[in-house]
Every structure is written in structure tokens, then in C-alpha cells.
Amino acid sequence: MLALNFSGLQYETGTDEAGRGCLAGPVTAAAVILPEDFTHELLNDSKQLSEKIREYLRPIIEEKALCYHVTNIEPKIIDEINILNASIKAMQECIVKLNPTPNYIIVDGNRFKPVNNIPHSCIIKGDSKYLSIAAASILAKTYRDEYMNRIHEEFPMYNWKKNKGYPTKEHREAIRKYGSTKYHRMSFRLLPEQLELEFEKGIIL
Record's family (predicted)? Predict the structure, then answer.
């Protein structure tokens, strides 16, 4: 059973991101403040749930939450500031848009940077321990999947509708055949042989 609250404060927000390890598309974050009486037996880390259950839970979270916000950080920004900073930026941008303003932040993972002097705690595997982080993980995942389904229509040869931009064999083969797009993260190693080329040149990214 996931816990509702970490800090004991009423307006605690949980935040999480999706798409950090992808070769294409945005990194997407969500932040959620849940009411004190919230509970749902299916709510868990989005990675532990089927797509069908995630889609079922999304409108429930949106309806029951005191507030929530979702932010995409595009590949151009990811390339400029790196994926860790982009992930943190996405979570911070969600948090500052919440109303009521949270008085505590719980973050999935082990890295975060303070925002507006709100105290925070990083919690390893927090999305499988706290309801608000689990809720944020579901919103981040479903909103990002929706985005990838949309851009799939623009570039169907990469099959983002299925692989969502992750480095699957199929996705890498499509990059090899068709090259990269405006949605690809150029600071990422899009093809395995890039590492060999970079090593030969004495460049390690």
C-alpha cells in the first residue's frame, strides 16, 4: 500500500518525469497535490501498470487532485542543458504552476534543485512508495505517450507510436536508414557505432 504523505504537511506535491532515456521526443514531468483523503487501489508506479490501467487512472487523478501540472521540455533544450538538468527543469516548471502553492516537494529519484525555497526530499523509487509521486508518474507517462503518438503521424517510419522514442532495435534501424529528425536528441548517442567513432576521434560525450 502506497503512503499518502511524507512530510505531514497538507499541500505536499509529488513530482516525477517520463522519457529521460529516450532518443527522441521531450522529457515530460508532472507534479500533483492530492487531497488528504485520497486513495485508489490501482495507483502505483506507472512502469508497473499496463497502458490500459494508466489511461483509466489519468482522468481519476485529474478529477480528484487538488491541482496538477504537466510540462514538456523539448529536445533542443535537452541538448543545450543536458537531460538531467532538463528533467529537473521540467519538474520545477510544474511545481511553480501549482495552485495552491505546495509547502513540501517529494521527488522521485536522487537529484533535484530547490525551487522557490520550498523544502524537498528526494526518494529513491518514490513512485512505488507515495501516492502523489505515483500519480505524477502516470500523468507524465500518459501525456508523453500522447505527444509521441501525435508526432508519429508526422514521422511514421520511426514507429514512435510503439517505441515512444526509446532506443529499441527498430528505432535505431530507422535512424540508420532515414537519419535524424527535429525531434531527436542530438546530444544522445543515436547509433551504437557513434561511440566507436567518437573514441577514434578522441571525443567522449
Answer: Belongs to the RNase HII family.
* Structure letter (DSSP) for residue 195: H
Average pLDDT value for the chain: 92
Q: Which three cell numbers stand for residue 110?
A: 536522487
State the binding site. 16-17, 108
Residues counted in the chain: 205
* Binding site feature residues for a divalent metal cation: 16-17, 108
- Give 55-73 pLDDT, tens digit per residue: 999 999 999 999 999 999 9
CA dist 125 → 39, 88, 111, 120 (Å):
19, 16, 12, 15
Q: How many CA atoms lie within 13 A of 168 on its CB side?
A: 12
Residue 24 near residue 165 (C-beta atoms within 8 A): yes
In three-state secondary structure terms, 14 is strand
* pLDDT 10s digits, 135-184: 999 999 999 999 999 999 999 999 999 999 999 999 999 999 999 999 99
What's the CA dihedral at 77, 81, 79, 123 to 10 degrees? Answer: -90
pTM of the model: 0.91
Q: Which domains are seen in the chain, by residue range?
A: 1-205 (3.30.420.10)
Among residues 28, 99, 97, the alpha carbon closest in space to that of 65 is found at 99
- Backbone CA torsion sign across 43, 92, 17, 69: positive
